[in-house]
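Study both lines:
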Amino acid sequence: MRAVGIIAEYNPFHNGHQLQINEAKKSSDCSHAICVMSGNFMQRGEPAIFDKWKRAEMAVTGGADLVLELPVVFAVRSAQYFAQGGVRLLNALGVVGHLSFGAEHPDLEILQKIAEATENKEVIEALQLNLQNGQTYAAALSNAILSIQTVPKEILTSPNNILAIEYLRSIRKFAPTIIPIAIKRQHANYHDINITGSIASATAIRRSLVERQNDDISRTVPPEVYSIIQEITKNQRGPSEAGKLDNIILAKLRTTKASELEKIPDVSEGLHNKMMSSALEAGNTTELLALIKSRRYTGTRLRRILIHLLLGTSQAEIVHFDKQGPLYARVLAFNKKGRELLGEINKTSSIPLVTKTTHYLNSRSRNNHDLDTLQKMLSYDTLATDIYTLSLPAAPWTYGGLDFRHSPIYHP
């Protein structure tokens, strides 16, 4: 059995995602699709609009057969490490023959050429210099490649193209037998904020959800997904409100020692001191980000840092996790074909399938100091959920410990 893999956030799942899954199965000639999905926090350092189980359920109703969680220590990272985490997890399953991803410019020949160029010594040196000069990773990489390669500049400024290049780099390094499939992104641009048709950006859909304009999104998501969204909002299980985490973030910054803040992933060059002083002047995270944002530290990078502050991850731990790669495949949702996949994966996978968190970790053992690497990685997923639920509208969804009680969702 060979499956096509997809790495996504589904924040939330919409018609464009359904088209991609259908095209991925068709292009790969695979009848089964496995999606590796971010959990409760996104790559941009924001809480997901809906929790990971509901978003996974949406994906299964929309064509995915099995949805696995990308551990938070890879999900809330820059494109390079997000891609590496997803590719390594899919490769470890032993059943994935293809990786499908969307791109604004899905010319694999050009994308492969760019991915290969990233291994060029001159590009690596230019990249490091650009980073030292305060450029963001995306800008630093783009400018480094353009210094030796003649490729259209717009290819290197589109978010999905950057991610596509990172997927190709990760495949070359960690999963050379996986065949990449680039699919052209349909209609709506990544950051479009308005809904104008049946294909809309996730940004536009989230905006409508936050503004409680659910009728606007009914044409942008599959009917079953819309029913799930209606159920979630009716039961006050979502959407999340990032602002509910503001006081927690400020409290952490005001009470954590400078020596501990300095250990947070991505913090360098005295940023921890600026974070501490700015936390005394800010009344919310919007004000905080305005005070500490710079050319080197973009809003996105800073939001990721704040999530790692809440989780308590350190740079040393992240480096260790990056060397290991994902150490388990956490099952969030599946259907009948997904059940078939789980049976096959049990035979072929080099990492364990996790269907019950308590088989590896419970709420008491999570606080032990002698956790192995797998347990430590998994503990951060459970902590992420406990923090995330505080952003939800009302009890009982705001309670903690969900990862120890919530089973994977089976959708016939």
Observations:
- Residues 1-104+159-240+326-368+401-412 form a domain with the Rossmann fold fold (CATH 3.40.50.620).
